Every structure is written in structure tokens, then in C-alpha cells.
Amino acid sequence: MRFLEITEGINPKLFMVLRQLQNDGIEKIGVDELNQKLEGMGVEAFSYETFAASYTIDPRIKKIIKNFNKDQIYFNQSATDPIDQQGATGDAVGQMAKRATDLTDLA
Length: 107
Fold this sequence. Notes:
mainly alpha; Arc Repressor Mutant, subunit A; 10% strand; disordered N terminus
């Protein structure tokens, strides 16, 4: 079994929730509040010790968590992956549309 398979199986729901909170721009969350969110997904509550174990084992969690203590979890907002906002410009889109509808070569 590869290391990636092991870490992905640790607690994917915990990672999903943490990643979504980070993407939402949340700077910190209380451990009790996180446990309430996880409870709604059918995940067991985390104690400081069990969260610390997940943090130690899962490099994905290490990447998005800046720091944590018994009461709070702080997100590393500098580690977010910005969505690439670059794409086709208006001119490029217009040119593609013009080429797609240009039937002069078919005559």
C-alpha cells in the first residue's frame, strides 16, 4: 500500500470540512464548532489528542492548518490554492466563435 493511499484514508471527511472552511476564508474555528459540523456528517468527535494525531499523520491537514490548541484551530490562509481566474479574453472568445461559424471554406 502506498503512503498516499494511507493518508487519504485517515479521515477524508475531516479534510473536506477543513479545506472548505479554509476556502471560505475562515481564519479559525473552535474545536466544539468543528465537532458539530463533523457530527452532521457522521464523523466522531475529535479531541485535542485525536486531532493532533490526524495533523501529524496527514500532510494535507498540515498544509492547511497554521496552528491549533485545545480550543481553537487556526487556518493557514496563505496556503489556499487560488482559482485560476485567467482564461480566454473577450477577443479570443469572439475569434473562436467567428472561426466556428465561418462557413466560407465549405463552399
